[in-house]
């Protein structure tokens, strides 16, 4: 009688557990912050964090080696957060001209302003979810994380000029969408 060999139900992880644990310890805060800036919700950011590291665990062992782990994980977090936001397409739309002052206001503002600010944040999250992921990543890094164009260019493997043009065009587009949302003319 032949002995039966045990066949694993799941393929072996491409990243050894000890290595994944080290990567997690070094980068979990970066991934969480990037996800939180996009989703605006702790629970959603934690879901994105889990998704990113589960994908790392399931990553194909024959896939290209990751050169800059922090950059890779940051982009993965932004993309996963945007995917989550896209899955909730029932979000309203709002204008960009009014965003900066409202988003910068202190938490102790009036209830009216707090409600408006929440609506604007939700509109912006929905608008970003509709963008190309690469463009949304650039925009989020610039306006949510405060990164400068050269740093964004390095992280996205492009030129600062490309980043500047992309962000400028995206800002113009979002401003037009916001004016339409508010009942104005584009």
Task: Work out the number of β strands.
Answer: 0
CATH topology of the largest domain: Arc Repressor Mutant, subunit A
Radius of gyration: 20 Å
Q: Count of helices?
A: 8
Overall form:
globular
What's the CATH H-level homologous superfamily of the largest domain?
Winged helix-like DNA-binding domain superfamily/Winged helix DNA-binding domain
Sketch the topology as an H/E string, one letter per element: HHHHHHHH
Residue stretches low in confidence (pLDDT < 50, at least 5 long) are 1-12, 90-94
Keywords for this entry:
single chain; 186 residues; Rna Polymerase Sigma Factor, Chain: A; Arc Repressor Mutant, subunit A; 2 domains; 0% strand
Summarize the structure in words.
This protein has eight helices and no strands. With 186 residues, the chain is an all-alpha fold. The chain folds into two domains: 73 residues, Rna Polymerase Sigma Factor, Chain: A, CATH 1.10.1740.10; 95 residues, Winged helix-like DNA-binding domain superfamily/Winged helix DNA-binding domain (Arc Repressor Mutant, subunit A), CATH 1.10.10. Helix 1 packs antiparallel against helix 2 and helix 3 crosses helix 5. The N terminus is likely disordered.
What would you say about this model in short?
The protein has helices at 17-39, 42-58, 69-86, 99-104, 111-130, 133-143, 149-156, 160-181. It has 186 residues and is an all-alpha fold. It has 2 domains: 15-87, Rna Polymerase Sigma Factor, Chain: A, CATH 1.10.1740.10; 92-186, Orthogonal Bundle (Arc Repressor Mutant, subunit A).
């Amino acid at each position: 009688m032949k002995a039966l060999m045990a066949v694993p139900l799941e393929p072996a992880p491409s990243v050894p557990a000890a290595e994944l644990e080290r990567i997690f310890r070094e980068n979990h805060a970066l991934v969480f912050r990037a996800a939180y800036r996009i989703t605006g919700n702790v629970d959603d950011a934690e879901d994105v964090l889990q998704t990113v590291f589960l994908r790392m665990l399931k990553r194909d062992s024959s896939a290209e080696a990751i050169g800059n782990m922090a950059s890779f994980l940051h982009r993965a977090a932004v993309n996963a957060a945007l995917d989550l936001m896209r899955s909730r397409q029932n979000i309203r739309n709002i204008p960009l001209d009014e965003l900066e002052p409202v988003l910068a206001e202190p938490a102790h503002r009036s209830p009216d302003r707090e409600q408006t600010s929440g609506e604007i944040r939700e509109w912006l999250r929905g608008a970003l979810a509709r963008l190309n992921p690469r463009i949304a990543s650039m925009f989020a890094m610039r306006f949510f994380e405060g990164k400068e164009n050269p740093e964004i260019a390095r992280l996205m493997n492009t030129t600062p000029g490309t980043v500047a043009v992309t962000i400028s065009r995206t800002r113009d587009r979002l401003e037009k969408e916001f004016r339409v949302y508010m009942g104005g003319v584009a």
